[in-house]
Specification:
The protein starts with 5 loop residues before the first strand and ends with a helix. The chain has 2 domains: 196 residues, 2-Layer Sandwich (Cytochrome Bc1 Complex, Chain A, domain 1), CATH 3.30.830.10; 196 residues, Metalloenzyme, LuxS/M16 peptidase-like (Cytochrome Bc1 Complex, Chain A, domain 1). With 422 residues, the protein is an alpha+beta fold. The strands form 2 sheets. Strands 1-2-6-3-5-4 form a 6-stranded mixed beta sheet, with helices on both faces. Strands 7-11-8-10-9 form a 5-stranded mixed beta sheet, sandwiched between helices. The chain is globular. The protein has 15 helices and 11 strands.
Length: 422
């Protein structure tokens, strides 16, 4: 099947992404190449509030009653999405563009009710165990005021007293040509539709200019063992090991896959330390990695009875040492890479996943990296490459070991420190 992605017009960039699977749905998306991590301390949470205001204002427009749309602010990307069909897209897109590209900031009622709903949403999240866990991890990992470490509590505090003028200022700063990416996707779309939409973008008076970003101050902490008393874990102890990853600005996409492969080998997957952990009566070791533009962080996490902490760390450290000295089974590495290949192909052939993928590529790398190129580069990931990578990533002086629990008595940090030799 022929597949081509096309840049239709510039300033702001407008792309057509053809879908590979037949569908009646058409998606029109307005993306910002910035998200909550680019916000200054005074702007924390304002992107989210603005998103609610714009979407809320659109829903108050009676003529847009039949429209399907949504908005979301991510760490380094903001997305406004319209779902439509071939028949309706030209009418729907007018309402959608008008609401997002030409907003009216005089609706105080909408502002007040949307601010309420954002504050409610945030206060619900603030007390969740996930949020409390991240709060502890990020505050330990990053020194000073790092935007990546910002948490919902800070957003909540910051937007409480904000006025409608503040979201208008935010809009003026970020909704500029160079920061906007518009995409249209559908199956076999007529050129006429694509060109009409391209033309209608030009009707809007989107401002030019540049965003002045504040210098990010994301220094990461050195080795430490921290214990945090917290009721989120009732009986057992959560053991979290965090290391630093390289951010996506410093990585090629295939190098990101190599980082993932190393994590897979260290987790409780079949190719990782599954058997060893089982034998020690430990059934879970998850990992999560965040790769942002300038920083990355991996979190290995398990929840254990106190008396198993040392056994767990011994197994984990043994595996790190193995990987660092290149003792990797090539059949395991092959399995991980072929698993990746399959998921990549699948998601590339899935309409909505492909849409996310291409958007991410343009926002992160400034261009689309063809999947063939990605897959070809997988050949560069061999045992030597993984060994070198592991030596860079897993240095003891970069580790934070965090223990969270209600009762942390009798945990001997000196003994733990002795185990952590790698
Ligand atoms: Zn929300």
């Amino acid at each position: 099947m022929k597949f081509y992605t096309k840049k239709i017009s510039s300033n702001p960039d407008f792309y057509y992404f053809p879908f590979s699977k037949k569908t009646k749905d058409i998606f029109l998306e307005i993306n910002l190449k910035t998200g909550s991590a680019q916000e200054t301390a005074q702007e924390a949470g304002l992107g989210h509030l603005l998103e609610h205001y714009l979407i809320g204002s659109l829903s108050k427009n009676k003529k847009s009653e039949t429209l399907e749309y949504d908005g979301e602010v991510f760490k380094e990307q903001t997305n406004y999405c319209l779902k439509s069909s071939k028949k309706k897209i030209l009418i729907d897109s007018d309402y959608f563009f008008n609401a997002i590209l030409n907003p009216d900031f005089s609706n105080k009622k909408t502002f007040i009710s949307e601010k309420d709903s954002v504050l409610n949403e945030l206060s619900g999240k603030i007390n969740s165990s996930d949020e409390q866990g991240y709060k502890i991890i990020f505050k330990e990992r990053f020194l000073n005021d790092c935007q990546y470490a910002r948490i919902k509590t800070e957003e909540y505090k910051n937007i409480k007293d904000k006025k409608i003028k503040d979201i208008e200022d935010y809009y003026k700063k970020y909704f500029i040509k160079s920061n906007i990416l518009i995409t249209l996707s559908g199956y076999n779309l007529d050129k006429k539709i694509i060109n009409e939409i391209s033309k209608s973008i030009k009707k809007y008076n989107i401002s030019s200019g540049k965003i002045k970003f504040e210098q990010q101050n994301c220094q990461v902490s050195r080795f430490k063992i921290v214990s945090v008393k917290n009721n989120i874990i009732k009986k057992d102890i959560a053991v979290l090991l965090t290391f630093s990853f390289l951010g996506s600005k410093k990585l090629k996409p295939w190098q990101k896959i190599a980082q993932d492969a190393v994590c897979e080998m260290l987790s409780s997957s079949r190719m990782g330390i599954f058997d060893d952990l089982r034998n020690a009566g430990i059934y879970k070791l998850d990992y999560e990695n965040f790769i942002w533009k300038n920083n990355g962080i991996i979190i290995f996490a398990t929840i254990l009875p106190k008396n198993k902490i040392k056994a767990f760390l011994n197994i984990f450290v043994k595996k790190i040492k193995e990987i660092k000295s290149g003792l990797i089974l090539s059949k395991n590495l092959k399995k991980i890479l072929s698993k990746y290949k399959n998921t990549a192909k699948k998601s590339f052939n899935d309409n909505s996943q492909r849409l996310d993928w291409l958007t991410y590529d343009i926002i992160t790398y400034g261009k689309i990296i063809p999947i063939e190129e990605d897959l070809k580069n997988l050949k560069k990931i061999n045992i030597v490459f993984i060994k070198n990578l592991a030596n860079n990533l897993f240095a003891k002086n970069k580790l934070n070991l965090i223990l969270i629990g209600k009762n942390l008595k009798n945990i001997n940090k000196k003994e733990i420190d002795k185990i952590l030799k790698f």
